[in-house]
Every structure is written in C-alpha cells, then in structure tokens.
Specification:
With about 260 residues, the chain is of the alpha/beta class. The chain has helices at about 20-30, 45-55, 70-85, 100-105, 110-130, 160-180, 205-215, 225-235, 250-255, and strands spanning about 10-15, 35-40, 60-65, 90, 140-145, 185-190, 245-250. Strands 3-2-1-4-5-6-7 form a seven-stranded parallel sheet, with helices on both faces.
C-alpha cells in the first residue's frame, strides 16, 4: 500500500541540502510511495549537492529559489504551473539563523539577526503557501518542520526556538484559513538528527547523547522515521488531520513534559 500511497501526486520540497537532510529523507519516502517531486536550491554550492540526488531518483525539476525573495518564489510556482498545471503537496524544510545568535546568550540576539531568523524560518512558509494555494486545485497538504525548542527553552537553540514557536503558530492560522479549500497544513517536530543545519546548534552531540538515555525508546529518531511521519501527513491517510504538530522524537517530548 505504501508503494502507491502518493501515486499520481506531485509537489515541491524546499530545503534539501545534502543526503543527510531531513528534507531528503522526506523526498525519498515521497518517491518510494509513487509521488513526483521538484527540488529547490538556494545557491550554486547547494545546487552541486542537490542535482546528483535528484538524478538518483529521476527528478528533472531542480529549480533555484531563495525564499527571502518573493519574486523567486513566484517564479518557481509559475514554472510548476507551466510544467504540471497543479500540485498536491509542499514540504517546507527551511530555517536559518546567524551562528552567533545560536551560540551566545539569547538576550544578546541582534535585531537584524532576529529579523533574519523570522524571515527565513517563518515568513517563508507564508510566502510559499500564498503561491502554492492557487495550484492546489483539488486540495492538498502543506508540511513544515519544527523542533521541541518551540515549546521548551532548549540550551543553544535560542532565537531559532522563538522562530519555531512562530512557525507552529503560523501552521495553525494557515490551517484554519485553508481548510475550506481542502488544503491541510501540519508540522513534524523531529527529535535531534545529524544534519548540516544541526551542526550550528551549540552542544548538539550532547543533545544526541541525552536522547539515548532519556527517551522511552532509548535512542534517537532517524531520518527515515521523520520521512515516514511526513509521508503520513502528506498522504490521504491523514485526510482528517490539520493544524497539528506531529512529534517524532522517540517520546522525548513526553518525558520532558512530565
């Protein structure tokens, strides 16, 4: 059943940086379930890493898009409309903050650094959704990625935690607005996974070790498990689910909440 779960479905995945990206784990699950994907890249360095990955799954649509630029987002979706006519899903796996704003004291976050983190990590979901909705002519699913730092003060996560909190709130507002169009908006809140983005978080290896000892499953979640959770939320299996934050963290949130 999984192999044909997204048969005939098409969509775009933002945020694949390399083969370790959560966005790539999601992409692999989409393709394995019969879906077609377009991938994006922000600059030439990322393009060089993404194109071979796209080739490995037979994806020809690898398109430039800087999510800080509205014209590039609009151009991307114009290309998708010309190519496919409509889309069924969007995966938003984009976040960024200055390294210094993640490693210092939260109170020392600069005004420009705060604005940058909110723009790239939060507003980009809104901008992407605005352009995606006209192409979701038969409804669809929009998915973003969050983290426990949106709800708890996680050491070293700092301004990104505040951005993820705003992202989760945006999920609820977008879900409330778009439900009548048959478009669902959800988030996967993943436990720590070794990715390029995670390397910027202070004491990340310590967080990985903590998961091993404190989570009910006594281990960290995997890229594949995050991909499977995303597949559920992108498919019709979750046809009655919207505005939700779906935790995939080996139960760590349950322990911290106790």
């Amino acid at each position: 059943m999984i192999s044909g779960l997204l048969e005939g479905k098409r969509g775009v995945v933002f945020g694949v940086a390399n083969q370790m990206s959560l966005a790539w784990g999601i992409t692999e699950q989409i393709v394995g379930a019969g879906g077609q994907v377009a991938l994006t890249y922000v600059n030439e360095a990322v393009e060089k890493r993404v194109k071979p990955l796209a080739e490995s799954i037979g994806t020809e649509l690898v398109l430039p898009c800087d999510v800080a630029r509205d014209l590039e987002i609009e151009g991307l979706f114009a290309t998708l409309e010309r190519t496919w006519g409509k889309i069924d899903f969007v995966v938003h796996s984009v976040a960024y903050a200055h390294r210094d704003d993640l490693r210092g004291f939260f109170s020392q976050t600069t005004r420009s650094g705060f604005a940058l983190a909110m723009d790239i990590s939060v507003y980009s979901l809104i901008a992407i959704t605005r352009c995606a909705v006209p192409l979701m002519k038969e409804g669809g699913s929009i998915l973003t990625l969050s983290y426990l730092g949106a709800r708890r003060a996680v050491p070293g996560y700092n301004v990104m935690g505040v951005a993820k909190a705003a992202l989760e709130s945006s999920v609820r507002y977008l879900a409330a607005e778009l439900g009548e169009k048959g478009i669902r908006v959800n988030a996967v809140s993943s436990g720590p996974v070794k990715t390029l983005a995670a390397s910027a978080v202070a004491n990340f290896q310590k967080k990985l070790r903590a998961m091993d000892g404190l989570s009910p499953l006594r281990r960290n979640v995997t890229q594949e498990e995050v991909g499977k959770a995303a597949l559920y939320l992108l498919s019709d299996l979750s046809s009655g689910v919207t505005g939700e934050i779906h935790f995939v963290d080996a139960g760590f949130n349950m322990v911290v909440s106790a």
